[in-house]
Structure formats: C-alpha cells, structure tokens
Amino acid sequence: MTDIIQLLPDHVANQIAAGEVVQRPASVVKELLENAIDAGATNIKLIVKDAGKTLIQVIDNGKGMSVTDARMCFERHATSKIKEAQDLFNLNTKGFRGEAMASIAAIAHVELKTRQEIDELGTCIKIEGSKISAQEPDATAKGTSIAVKNLFYNIPARRNFLKSDTIETRHIVNEFQRVALAHNDITFSMSHNNTEVYNLKEGNLKQRIVGVFGGKTNEKLVPISEETDVITIDGFVTKPEFAKKKRGEQFFFVNDRFIKSSYLHHAVSSAFDGLLGNGYHPSYFLYLKVPPESIDINIHPTKTEIKFDNEKVLYAIIRASVKHSLGQYNVSPVLDFNRDASMDTPYAFNTKEFSETPKITVDPNFNPFENETKQQKSSYAPSSYQRASNTTQWESLYTGFDDLPTEPSQTELQLEAETDQNTSGKTFQIHKKYVLSTIKSGVVLIHQNLAHQRILYEAFLENITVKEAASQQLLFPVELSFNKEEVEVLKELKEDLENTGFLFDKIDDDAIVIKGIPTSISESQIAIILEQLLDDVKQEIPETSFSQLDIISKSLSKSLAIKTGSKLSEKEQDNLVNSLFSCKEPTTSPYGKKIFETLTLGELDKLFGTKN
Fold first, then answer.
1. Closest Cα partner for 94 from 231, 230, 254?
2. How crowded is residue 7: how many other Cβ atoms within 10 Å of its Cβ?
3. Which CATH code is given to the segment(s) 10-200?
4. Listed residue (491, 497, 493, 492) closest to 464, CA to CA
5. CATH entry 3.30.230.10 includes domain 206-328
6. Which helix (H) or strand (E) holds 195?
7. Which residues does residue 57 pair with via DSSP β-bridges, in sequence order?
8. Which helix (H) or strand (E) holds 56?
9. DSSP 3-state assignment of 612?
10. 516 FRET partner, CA 20 to 30 A, in 239, 289, 350, 463?
11. Strand ranges, E, within 431-470
C-alpha cells in the first residue's frame, strides 16, 4: 500500500495559517499596528481604503529593519521576540509567534519599505502570494511602511465572506481604538478613503480617552488608582448617570494589551450594585499591571483572552477599587446626610503615621447630680390624680370597636379580587404580561410586548416607505453626545430617521442636536431609542437600503413597545387586540417570535376530560 501522508507545500501551509491569523481586514490592522509599537515607534499612521479590501497601510518611525531582517520577517515562525519556550511566560511585547507577516503575505500583495537610522538607504520588498517579486534599495524615511493591497485576492471564497464596507470599517476602527487607548504615549492617526478619522496626540490616559470618544466624555469619568503587591490598577469608570443600555466602551488592558474577561467585567458591574437601573451597563477604561509570569496570553489565537494565576484575588481587588472610587468622589450615596466633606481624611493619608496620640482629660470630681434638690426629684413622680387621668385616657383609645364593620366574607373577597384583575367583557390581563381574549372557537393568549412590537413595526415601516410621518417640535432642542463612529452611523441614517419623525438641527463630530421627534415618543426616550438603534445597527448592518429601513423600524418598535409589567386598562387591551389582528403579519413579532397562542373549546375540554 502506498504512503498517503505528505508535507504540505509552503504556500498552502501559509494560506492555512492565514485563515487563523487573518480573519478580516481588521486582523491585519491589529498585527501591523502592534508590530509598529514593538519597533519603538512614537508616531504611527494608519491609511485604509475600501474598508481594507483595497489598501491597509501602516507607517511608523520605529527603528526599522536591516536588509536581512526585512526578508526574514516574511518567513513562518521567524521572530525576534522569543528564543526559547520559557520566554512565552515572560512576554512584554505584542506579536511574538512569527506568523503574522507570513500569513498576510500569503493572501495579499504586500509592499514593505524600511530603513534603520544608521543606514543611508533602506530596503523595498514586494511580495505577491508568498512569492517575492522584487527586492531593491530604496530612499525611504527612517522606520517602516507596510502596504497590504488586494486582501484575499487569491482566495475569492474568503473575500466573499467579508461583510459590507460599513461593518468591516467598524471592526477596523475598533482595533485602532484598542491599540490607541493602550498606548497614550504614542501619536496615532487614521484616515479612511482620504478622510481623516482620528488624529490623536500623545498625552495622559484621560486625554487619550477624550480624544477617542469625544470631549463630552471628560465630565463622565471617575478616576481609579490602586497599587497592591499583585496588581496595579489605573484608569476610569463612568458615573452611573451616564450608564448606557448597550455594552459599549468597556475596556480592560493587561500590561498594555486589550483583553476580554467576563469574570473581571462582573467584578466591575457588581461594584455598581444599586447605582444602575435595570438593563443599564457602566463604561470603564481599566489598565491593569501584573507580573508577566502570572498570566498566560497564548491561550487564544487573537490573544484577547488570557489566563490569570489568581483570578479570585484580582476580582476582589478590582471590585473594591471601583467601589472605593465611587464613594471617594461622592458618586455613590452615603447615609450621613449632614457629613462635612472637609472633615474627610484624604486617601493618601493611609500610609502616614500619627505624630502624637491625642490626650483626653477628665475631671474626676465632676458630678452632674449634686445640685439637684429633693423637691425637683419629687416633681418627676406622677401623682395619684395624674395616674387616674392617664388611665382614663388610655382606656378611651380602645372604645368604639363595636361600630367597626364586620370582616368581609369569602364571597366578597373573591368579587374584590376579580374587580382588581382589570377585566372586561372580552379581554383579561394576566400577570401584566399576557392578554387573554375570547373568540368564537375558544380563547387566544397574546404576549402584550411582542404584539405591540408588531403593531409599531408595521406603523413605522409604513411611515418611512409610504407616507410622511408626523413630528412634534421640541420647545428646547436636545443635545446628545456620541463618539465619532456613532455620529457617522447617525449621518447615514439621518434621512431615514427624518422619515420617522425625527428632526435634526445639526450633527457635529461628537454630538447631535434634535429639534423634533415622532409624536409617538417622549423627550425622555430620545437617548434610549438612539442608543438602542446604534446597537442594533452595529449588530446587523444592512446591505441594502430596504433592510436599513427595516432595522430602524425594528429597533424603534422594540424600544417603544409596552413592556412586561405594564398594567393595561380595558380600552388599552381592546385596542391592542384589535390593532394586532389588523396587521399584515399578526402571528410573529418583527424578530420572528410567536405573538399569540389559540386554545379551541375542544382543546379546553380535553384539559378537563369533558366533552361539553
């Protein structure tokens, strides 16, 4: 029998590795930015065209590479970061596997220009699908410039699996934000299709956060600083009043590396217990420093998940640190309503020693009772007359009970309970969640929230596509702050939102001003609705204009629908039932969930084992 196991050719092996390393254009952005940071760059530029499908270019002023290193960096498992396996447990750099450049070169056209400071001329290398097409000296600036063009040009199936340009751009922006937030001492800039998206100067942590998420973020931040033997924590959490319905702007950085950890996220969330409304989430930017040997960052291909040696200890410290900062800066409520803030001991005093112990002097001869006369003492004893009078008053408290009505009978209690159930002749509300309606063939049980979603969804969709929606002018325009990414999404949706009844006064880089809203919503709901809409759009960005209208209608209906736990009057129940069965698709909600269940008289009879 012939041998059937064989070694894969290098170009095939590189393409397989590329499938793990390069999932989308954002993966390339992450690898190139991290390489620039490892090269000691202080200024990094990211240039993107067509959401990274046409061009991803990173230019840095780092130390550059020699001619040999420039060629070696495209070989598999070629790295300057580790020399032996033990080095994996003491890493202070970003990329270390030596797979990134080889994988990128296998699925794109790559042009590398690099020069070291000591060299007069640099090197230019061009690669197409792992094959070097040209290598020559080049008069380039100090540092490195890597241009990745036509990503997945030789794997059309992978290219077809990429999402729309809007989604892919959003992933690129997310990666850029994570790297920029982790390195506030580096100047970053990003442009997409010749439009500048970010220009971030080096500064402190707060300046970098404000630079990424807009000037309005400044007033929302509460600083956190804690240093222990096992961890050092710096960063910020947002004040509870700025919490959002969506899980955005939540960042953990461990040794300047962005990570995801549901366990540590729970530690922060639990510190906000009692401060946030139901369904709201805090934003945070926490920078953790731990000994490199206490973590393993090689457990996930994208290195966004790491393993800690002492997770429970870190959980307790993070939770306590957040709680302490919320209390220290008067964010969380205190019981001492008359507390004088000037009397608080500064937190920095926890390491100071007392210069001397306070002395307390007592007069041993002081007697507060020595001047009290016998006459004064006797005045406190009640006389017989007073006792009799008081007795009469006490007894009067217990008179008149014979005139009280008798205890209601069981029949009366049942009638009262039925009255409180908010019933009508045709509909009954059950547990403030379902509406039961009688029909000729039996009964129908309707989920009130899902039913209202369907009613609103079809109404919004009709307003957007068929007729002009009614709008109410606001007495005072409402200004809402968003980051640049969210403002760009709102600009795209502006026309469709105006068709639903929203009127915009202006849209700036980090804020919008609304002067009119649909008649079906209140002013207090504006922020909640738009945040929910942005979250829905991020989860399911449309490919066509119709699906974009569909998502807006779905999001608005979900935000405005009657919630579970809302009590409905008889008229509201009837209107809900009638409106639902006037819809084109009354059986399912906009998100495909069943709205009602019908029980025929025959099915009801079976439940009780009867025929009549």
1. 254
2. 7
3. 3.30.565.10
4. 497
5. yes
6. strand 195-200
7. 47, 147
8. strand 55-60
9. coil
10. 239
11. 434-439, 442-447
Has residue 82 got a pLDDT over 70? no
> What is the pLDDT at residue 103?
85
- Buried b / exposed e along 571-600 (16+ C-beta atoms within 10 A): ebbbebbebbeeeeebeebbeeeebbeebe
Place of tokens 């399911």: 540
Main-chain phi, psi angles of 57, to 5 degrees: -130, 130
- Residue 412: is its pLDDT beyond 50? no
pLDDT at residue 331, as a whole number = 67
What percent of the chain has pLDDT above 70? 78
Buried b (16+ CB within 10 A) or exposed e, 372-389: eeeeeeeeeeeeeeeeee
DSSP letters along 114-128, please? EE-TT-SSEEEEEEE
- In CATH terms, the superfamily for domain 434-596 is MutL, C-terminal domain, regulatory subdomain (3.30.1370.100)
Bridge partners of 504, per DSSP, are 514
What are the tens digits of pLDDT across the range 145-184? 999 999 998 888 888 888 888 888 889 999 999 999 999 9
Q: What is the pLDDT of residue 17?
A: 64
Q: 596-612, pLDDT tens digit by residue?
A: 988 888 888 888 877 65
Q: What is the pTM of this model?
A: 0.68
| Maximum alpha-carbon separation in the chain | 124
Which of 75-89, 192-206, 371-385, 411-425 reaches the highest mean pLDDT? Answer: 192-206
What's the rounded Cα separation, in Å, for the pair 534 and 30? 24
By the 8 A CB rule, do 270 and 282 touch?
A: no
β-sheet with 471-481: strand ranges across: 471-481, 511-518, 503-507
> CA 399, CA 396: separation in Å to the nearest integer?
5
Name the one residue in this structure whose structure tokens are 């945040």: 531
Residue given tokens 């929606």 in the structure block: 469
Q: And the tokens for 532?
A: 């929910």
Domain boundaries, the chain: 10-200, 206-328, 434-596
**Are the beta carbons of 82 and 96 closer than 8 angstroms?**
yes
pLDDT band at 544 (very low <50, low <70, confident <90, very high): very low
